[in-house]
Design a protein that fits this description.
Bound molecules: pyridoxal-5'-phosphate
Oligomer: single chain
Number of helices: 17
Structural class: alpha/beta
């Protein structure tokens, strides 16, 4: 197990190192402005209609993002005519790359037949069958339009399931540093200031956003990857808890897969106390043919999906045990309700199926091999520096801290300004990663693309 320890400030020498790039902050930002005058104009226009210029938080970056005009394969073309090599693929959701021919032709064939009906189609059944075949223990699935909705529905199912026998069991346990989308009950302690977040072993829930009602009877927050804290809390409070919500690969903590013992203990405690184990695999389903659950050999009771399963269209899904999902069956008198105008629409279902069909076990091997190649190359580049490289499967991340990352408190020691500037400098060189330096490969990515990124990264961190 990993001890959750209090965040320490980076060593002075590490700060000196980060200071070198940060001293060039103005120069990096000025270069971005010089390269992207049309994006600057577009951003000014967007600011007339969107608060601060943005209609979704995830794409925020200083001083303003590059606006994209079109994309194909690994390449996005921005308004200023630059060809950018994409290493984030709409937040990992485009496992085949942009505008993959198999997806484009499948949806083109459907477009003239209509895009959404107030009726089911065989397309949604086919996507459901394909996904359930990959999720051991899951025999039912419901579709939604986003990962956030999938999590929201999983929470509702878990509360309803436990409410049958134990009315008071309404608390969802989530982990500090985990992001599960924008639903209120999971918007606690996603990226809290450590000073506000209490003891590492028993964190205080900290609101991630204004506008939340409170955690009483709804949410508890535990340290990620801490078996002892998990066991202590569950043993003391199991009769209030309906579900454990876990990212089996924690994205915002640094694309970190928790210790096998942590996941195994979570499964065992859920079995012992009748708690619903929910795996949020919205991102991590791209780590392997059966997601991270398949890789670690554990079956959750519910799995939240999103991103890649929609083939580039808005999607979410919750899948799992039939005795839980069947709570939404119309035959039940007291049931879980779940509507959604665009749930399982034919375009998403067709694009999702075309994408997932390409993602064979061999394709996942190819993705994992390339991801490992990127992590090795980045790892070589950061040797001796207060930087580290994490990730799994096709995903990789550079983090600006020397402290090995097991939990949120470790991740909170990162120098975020350094990461954002490094990312912006890479964008200036034509490479797209997140402002926290997360990246991923898709099936169209080659070693040559990764080599080009590695060369740019070495140049940026050496300058
Ligand atoms: C683990 C995880 N869960 C849920 C979500 C929310 O998904 P969406 O953005 O589709 O609402 C995300 C989004 O990044 C995620 O990474």
């Amino acid at each position: 197990m990993t001890a959750a320890v209090t965040a320490a400030a980076p060593a002075a020498t590490d700060q000196d190192y980060f200071g070198i790039l940060k001293a060039r902050g103005n120069e990096i930002e000025s270069r971005h402005r010089r390269l992207t005058p049309r994006s600057a104009e577009a951003f000014a226009r967007a600011a007339n209609v969107f608060p601060g210029g943005y209609t979704r938080d995830a794409i925020m970056r200083g001083p303003y993002p590059a606006f994209v005009e079109r994309a194909s394969g690994v390449t996005m073309h921005d308004l200023d005519g630059r060809a950018l090599t994409d290493f984030w693929f709409n937040a990992t959701s485009l496992a085949l790359g942009h505008a993959h021919p198999a997806v484009v032709s499948a949806i083109a064939a459907q477009l003239s037949k209509g895009t959404a009906y107030f009726a089911p189609t065989l397309h949604e059944v086919a996507l459901a069958e394909l996904l359930l075949e990959r999720l051991p223990g899951a025999t039912r699935i419901r579709f939604a339009n986003s990962g956030s909705e999938a999590v929201m529905m999983a929470v509702r199912f878990a509360r309803a399931f436990r409410a049958n026998a134990h009315r008071s069991r309404s608390v969802i346990v989530k982990f500090e540093g985990s992001y599960h989308g924008s639903y209120d009950d999971v918007s606690w302690s996603v990226s809290p200031k450590v000073a506000d977040a209490g003891a590492a072993e028993m964190p205080l829930p900290v609101a991630e956003t204004a506008g939340l009602a409170g955690t009483e009877g709804r949410v508890a927050v535990l340290p990620f990857n801490d078996v002892d804290a998990l066991r202590r809390y569950i043993e003391a409070s199991h009769d209030e808890i309906c579900a454990l919500l876990i990212e089996p690969m924690a994205n915002r903590i640094g694309l970190v897969v928790p210790d096998a013992a942590f996941l195994a203990e979570a499964r065992a405690l859920c079995d012992r106390y009748g708690i619903v184990l929910i795996f949020d695999e919205v991102i991590s389903f791209r780590v392997g043919y059966r997601g991270v659950a398949g890789q670690v050999g554990l079956q959750p009771d519910l799995t939240c999906l999103g991103k890649i399963i929609g083939g580039g269209f808005a999607v979410g899904a919750v899948a799992g045990r039939d005795d839980i999902l069947d709570l939404s069956s119309p035959q039940r008198s007291e049931r879980v309700t779940h509507a959604g105008t665009f749930n399982a629409n034919p375009i998403t279902s067709i694009a999702g199926r075309a994408t997932m069909a390409e993602l064979t076990p061999a394709a996942f091997d190819q993705l994992a091999e390339l991801g490992a190649y990127a992590r090795r190359g980045l790892g070589d580049a950061v040797k001796g520096l207060p930087l580290q490289v994490t990730g799994a499967g096709s995903l990789f991340k550079v983090t600006a801290t020397a402290r090995p990352i097991h939990n949120y408190r470790d991740a909170a020691t990162t120098d975020k300004r350094w990461e954002a500037l490094c990312s912006l400098a890479l964008l200036n060189e034509g490479f797209v990663m997140t402002p926290t330096l997360s990246g991923c490969c898709s099936l169209v990515t080659t070693r040559a693309h990764v080599d080009a990124l590695l060369a740019a990264f070495r140049t940026v961190i050496a300058a």
